[in-house]
């Protein structure tokens, strides 16, 4: 009975808290994280083990949905040169800053790597909301941010696959370890190419089944299978789920309003909010989270993203207003950073206080971005 009560409490309060944040112009995910935090670490009402399974499925669905419906490769290619440059530079600088900053505080090599990868990830959902609200998404800087976010996510997931492989070994990889990692990535690439041929056939064939929702079930099974194979090859389940979404987004039989509605109901209605609530449940009230480490992490996380994007804009000959919009728009951290941290915690390389510090960073970056971005977007930006 406690399991059912925990489930009901988390589901209803992720939506209630999420509604509050939506109404004040913030992303719903903050409400879900807060719900998990309040009913877990603060009040001690909900047992995290009752939610964990739902959270892990939500993690897979989150990345599947990102690959399936949120990555628009054609849109990114409109300003591909700027997007690629911004995405690459905006990943490398925060990665380096995060790694050396963590090493300075005496954290182990693997932990520092995870922190660097988490800082490299950008969550532009809040920035895109501001661009759309001001009618500035279809501008040069708007399209560049969209393209950069795709490049940023792909780089982040590839880096994640590498650091997860290192994290599983627990030490700096030897030549043979590097060989195993490269072999795993190569073998998974072959599996992905085979899946690109086989999956569309299976999806098309499943339409002939008389069983209810056979096609939808087939899609979910295929994504879970790809995530499983990625993990077995020493990579990450989230990489498999993301690439599964990217692959299946090209299947014409799934490009229907009906399928998208079903996917949205199952993922956004139940499992993805459960993932973010699970994140909130994992936050530890650690006094070390309020420290010079946290302060430095937040300042460097914001500055490294802003500076990297601003300089990239200048290289692309953007004007000053465009560079400012670009820099501020790339500041927020969110979903991908959380995924990196959760996997790091599961491998035992991310301490509780580091996780709590990142939670504070995410909240501050998400709240700060629209406040700084709004006055910039009121200015005239080139199309």
Structural class: mainly alpha
Radius of gyration: 20 Å
Low-pLDDT sequence parts: none
Order of helices and strands: HHHHHHHHHHHHHHHH
What number of structural domains do the residues give? 1
Mean pLDDT comes to 79
At CATH level 2, the architecture is Up-down Bundle
Number of helices: 16
Kindly report how far apart the N and C termini lie: 57 Å
How does this model look, in words?
The chain has a single domain (2-377), classed as Up-down Bundle (Na+/H+ antiporter like fold), CATH 1.20.1530. The chain is built from 16 helices and no strands. By secondary structure, it is mainly alpha-helical. 78% of the residues lie in helices and 0% in strands. It has helices spanning 2-23, 28-42, 52-70, 73-78, 80-104, 109-120, 125-133, 140-169, 175-206, 214-232, 237-248, 257-282, 292-315, 320-329, 335-346, 352-377. Helix 6 packs antiparallel against helix 8 (140-169) and helix 10 crosses helix 11.
